[in-house]
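P.,

For your records, the input lines for the assembly:
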Amino acid sequence: MNSAVVLLVVLWTGLTLYTLFGGADFGGGLWDLLAGGAERGKPQRELIEHSIGPVWEANHVWLIFVITLFWTGFPTAFAAFAATLYIPLTLAALGIIARGAAFAFRKVSDELWQRRLFGAAFAFSSLVTPFFLGTTLGAVASRRVPTDIAAGDPLTSWLNPTSITTGVLAVATTAYLAAVYLTADARRTATPELSDAFRRRALLTGAGLGVLTLAALPIVRVDAPHLFTGLTGPALPLVAGGVVAGVLSMALLLTRRYLIVRITAALAVATILWAWAVAQYPVMLPGLTVHVAATSPAVLDAVLWVLAVGAAVLIPSLIYLYTVFQREHPPHATHADIAP
Amino acid sequence: MIVAAFMVTGFGVAAVYAAAMLRGKRDRYHRLGFLVPFTVAAALAPVQVVVGDWAAHFLADYQPLKLAAIEGLTHTTQGAPLSLGGVYVDGELRYALEIPNALSLLAHWDPDALVLGLDQAPADLRPPVNVVHWSFQIMVAIGFALVALGGWLAWTWWRRRAIPRTRWFLAAAALAGPAAVLALEAGWVVTEVGRQPWVVYNVLLTRDAVNPQPGLTTGLLLVLAVYAALTVATVYVLRKLARRGPVPARALAPQEPSTASPDEDQTERDGGTP
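Structure tokens returned:
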């Protein structure tokens, strides 16, 4: 395995982590949108705020990681990708900005109309941002991003059957992951009725995601035949693994194993993402393979060393961050007690 | 840039407390709120001067055109002067105050060193001089004023362990916050405009780097609109928080768990329902 492939694996790991953590974050916003009126939805909104509050910024670090590695490691592919798909990428960037700002603003607003306004901005951008990001993946998967800079159609490159499918799948994935994670969070904070509500949603979105994925197959077969060949060829074991993990997750939800289902649900999503990568490997863009798109070996090796050193600092910190906020009684509880 | 960022933060935070102290709030909370960030920023101000000097040496070697634009130096000159003020018209810097040989001395540690002028590049590959020259002057002037302000505090602290008595000091410190931001922005203008028309010096022209897709202007306007709305909301929320006084429960940063304890959570919920 040469440096380019190692970097691609790291890049895809970053994308997987962004899907699993950032995705759940977006999904939290989606459930916030669907929580109901100001009074009825309040407990749900508080649970969501409590769950994503400590980590909502950390989760989006993965997107920065992926984009930075993409342009550093595979500059020619990135230039073509960003130039053709600038519209959905700009809209996704605006969504992320508006989302973070609105979330922070809502936290400090105490008048209802303001909480509603900022809440709506937060929830709406949580819905559309994963959709736009998803369409860009569909554009690459269906070979609609040519290698020449800005040679692709600015609209149909991401407004086409495959892209719409991946966009909708992305939104459904965020809703599913968030519901699965929140089910356990609700149980930990001793609110069984909320836990049941999110369990219902996890089951519903899980079933929906399964149906959507099945429905996507004929679309991909017609619209992106190369991808279909890959998915049913070298990537078939991963696709099968994803299906097994998905079905297992449903069973675990039914039997209320809320902690294990977090792992299997994440596995189901992750394996499908890796199945796509395997199905398309080694082609990044039409006529451009990973090895040709990769930057010079000197840069690749330097990047990999920097990543290794960075990971030694970052990974323990992230594990610590997540475990701190998953404890029964966070050590910072006294912090809030100072307040009048 | 990192040093400058700390300075902007330090002077910015200190300015808030300086303004409050001008309004008569001279308790320990405000004194500390002022002194801690101000001391950090003021200590870094002289460091920034050294870093700036280092950056100028770098420019002289690697981006001589930018240095020429900063100084409005048209012709490649031996023993070049340092120009203060002035306007660049018809290829010459006019009405500037010149310090003989100072530029050569600063850029190369040699009063007679050769400094490359704008004439090293054809006219269409030169940066706009007035913008770069004046941004640089503004940045340097503010930078030295901030060093002086820090020196003022250091002096009175050394003499009598206190903040200067005169209101002029606090007024200047309140101004130092926005001024530091202005200096930082002016520095960015020097860096970015001074490199034009190149986006990567001598490799890629800015006009060749632009995405050839249609509709980019609309995208830019959209980004401006979103940031304008966010600016309004930010100012509104910050003013609201400021009016509310010291640290209520909700004023915690969004990454802090305000609903951590179930008891407090309950009272809050009860309080919200009439």
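Two observations worth noting. Chain A touches chain B through 45 residues (CB under 8 Å). Residues 3-299+320-330 of chain A form one domain.

Regards
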